[in-house]
Amino acid sequence: MKILLAMDSTAESQIALAEAAGRPWPQGSLIEVLSVVDLTYAWNAPGMADALVQSAEEAVRCAAARLKAAGIDSTSLVLTGDPKTVVVDRAAATGVDLVMAGSHEAPDVVRFLMGSVARAVVRSAHCSVEIIRPRAGSGAMKILLATDGSECSLGAARSIASRPWPAGSEVRVVSVVELSPAWFRKPYPAYLDSKAMEDLRAEAMQRAQEAVAASEQLLAEAGMRESGTVLVPVASAAKMILKEAAEWGADLIVAGSHGRRGISRLMLGSVSEPVALHAGCSVEIVRPRK
């Protein structure tokens, strides 16, 4: 497995490094530690550009050494430019399977600017992306898989099933019934009679149950501890997933890059992106390799 760990000088990047170093990875995995130096504000400061690059080089060398000490093959690299595009371009050029980056929880403008990098990578990377947040302790993980039964969601389940995880880790599979929350409350919309509404509800519930069952089977065949549940919406799908993750105490949410509606950017913007950017835990958006 080829992983790109994008780092900067923040504490969040050190959290991402610690998570990468502490997890088991498939045999033969390689992690490239990348730091992108934005020289936009250093052009008129003699010597600043060189100092920034040297500092970044030392940081990624130390990070690579920590990964190697944990038994993970690693390399380090410093590039210059706009981090939002350089990280995505580097991931595409090297054909990595996963980009990992820390989530910046700084306040106000700083959070907005740093968050824009994570948002760009989540939205534009050709491969899977994980936004890492701190978790309590180490070892066994609680992984929440959000599925809608689409091939992309099954791909997310396969990704979990194919990778090693800390001993004792467990997976909970959830699917949000795909009807507007208002449609689950009476009175029903005027243009639908009660029978038609009940049929729609039953079909949506069956789709959600089948989606959960399909992912559960893949995980069970891989010998993972798993359980499943169907969520009846009282809010948007993204809010339901975030609520379930918080109540269960998930360490990681995993979701496919889009749903059955087909246009990946539409679904990514409506569900996966807000989940990735606003969850209280780490989030991995899984995309198939191209």
Quick recap:
The chain has helices at residues 11-22, 48-69, 83-94, 108-124, 151-162, 194-221, 237-248, 264-278; strands spanning 2-7, 30-37, 73-80, 98-102, 128-132, 142-146, 170-176, 225-231, 252-256, 282-286. With 290 residues, the chain is of the alpha/beta class.
N-to-C CA distance: 14 Å
The class by helix and strand makeup works out as alpha/beta
Strand ordering within the main sheet: 3-2-1-4-5-10-9-6-7-8
Strand elements, count? 10
Figure out the total of helices. Answer: 8
| Helix-strand pattern | EHEHEHEHEEHEHEHEHE
Helices and strands in order, then pairings?
Blueprint lengths: L1 E6 L3 H12 L7 E8 L10 H22 L3 E8 L2 H12 L3 E5 L5 H17 L3 E5 L9 E5 L4 H12 L7 E7 L17 H28 L3 E7 L5 H12 L3 E5 L7 H15 L3 E5 L4
Parallel strand pairs: 1-2, 1-4, 2-3, 4-5, 6-7, 6-9, 7-8, 9-10
Antiparallel strand pairs: 5-10
